[in-house]
Amino acid sequence: MTAMNTRGKFPGAELCTYLNASSVGLVPRSGVDAVRRAYEAFEQGSHVVFPTLLPGLSGAREKLARLLRVSQRDIGFAASTSDGMDCAASLLRADGRGHVVMARAEFPASSAPFRARGYEVDLVDPVDGWHGPEAYADAIGPETLAIVASAVQFANGEALDLRALGDLAADRNVFLVLNLTQAAGIIPLDLPSTGAHLAVGGGLKWLCSGVGSGYWWCPAPLIERFGIPRGGWFSQLDPLAMKAEQTEFRREASVIEGGTGSMVPYLAMNRFLTILEKTGVENVLTHVHALHDRLIAFADDRGIELLSQRDPARRGGQVLLAHPEPERAQQALQEKGIIVSARGAGIRVSPHLYNTGEDISRLIEAWI
For residue 309, with 0-12 CB atoms within 10 Å meaning exposed, 13-18 middle and 19 or more buried, which class applies? Predict the structure, then answer.
């Protein structure tokens, strides 16, 4: 299966010209069906519910671990990216250092959890238009605990050099915490090779899983070192014992799954990851960048400023085209059935594996 023949699996792609995966990815029909069957199981009772839910949940964990090239034991499900980041902020509190460094352009899901837990957040700006290691280096001091960075920035699609950031973190003896929300599902990732220590993300966007499908990657040695960030019934070593006398908790990433939380969205994630594995993330990125290239050529021809990275090696799944009135343009395009996002001084366009060249042509023809 290639990125060019998956459109039929996403009926929503025929309802409008949808170029907004950076906001919400379209859930495939198989994912919608899996969620529907889950709620139908709740009509019937516990003897049907758990046999329906648990295979999809374990399938999502297994496939997500393969996507990130990590151990399943080190994957835990969270309510959202913010929730996963809050677990990271809570876990690392035991280190004692109270500052984190991140880009001013970071999405608040990266910053708010650290601020809420009392950290000082030191914001940095790009150097020569790029968030390379030099953008973070000068802000790291004796009280710096971590570099917190989105692998791909939400507003303009800038893809960071994760290995370079990992090297900087190792050199300065700080942690590297990654936000993968705009990266997982669109760019190839190998977390251990980056030098990162923790990572969090959400399935709402490029993993096409709907809300409530967050996750974190936390290698077991960090939990052994710092303790568990939170716990609940399911966090216990033997939850099915159902005894208040229990004192032992799991020492792995899933310890944050404290009770009967939101399992249903991971059934959709499992189905999307099945499609993604057959397609190949590398093929998806190649396909999306080819669509970008058409849009960038249009912008160059029309004299529209490109506010995102031109170099494909520094570009994730979106491009940002300057517009004097982004909100008005977004609304006008939506009235024509073309869905994009106003971000900053431009229009963000984020196609996914279900989009085609015809979608880009419709956007170009309707551009105002």
Answer: buried
Of 156, 177, 152, 167, which Cα lies nearest the Cα of 281? 152
Rounded to two decimals, what is the model's pTM? 0.95
**Contact call for residues 9 and 352 (beta carbons, < 8 A):** no
pLDDT tens for 36-69 read 999 999 999 999 999 999 999 999 999 999 999 9
Cβ neighbour number for residue 344 with a 10 Å cutoff: 14
Percent of the chain with pLDDT over 90: 91
d(CA 363, CA 368): 10
* Residues near 330 by beta carbon (within 8 Å), at least 6 away in sequence: 340, 341, 342, 347
**Token match 């033997």: residue?**
238
Q: Token pair 């959890």 is at which residue?
A: 113
pLDDT for 1 beyond 50: no
Domains of the chain, with CATH numbers?
14-29+280-366 (3.90.1150.10), 34-276 (3.40.640.10)
Task: For residue 237, name the pLDDT band (cuts at 50, 70, 90).
Answer: confident
Is residue 63 within 8 A of residue 268, CB to CB? The reply is: no
Where are the extended beta strands (E) located within the chain?
A: 17-18, 75-78, 99-103, 120-124, 144-150, 175-179, 198-202, 214-217, 319-322, 338-339, 341-343, 346-349
Exposed/middle/buried for residue 245 (C-beta within 10 Å: 0-12, 13-18, 19+): exposed
Cβ partners under 8 Å of residue 196, min gap 6: 162, 165, 166, 169, 176, 177, 178
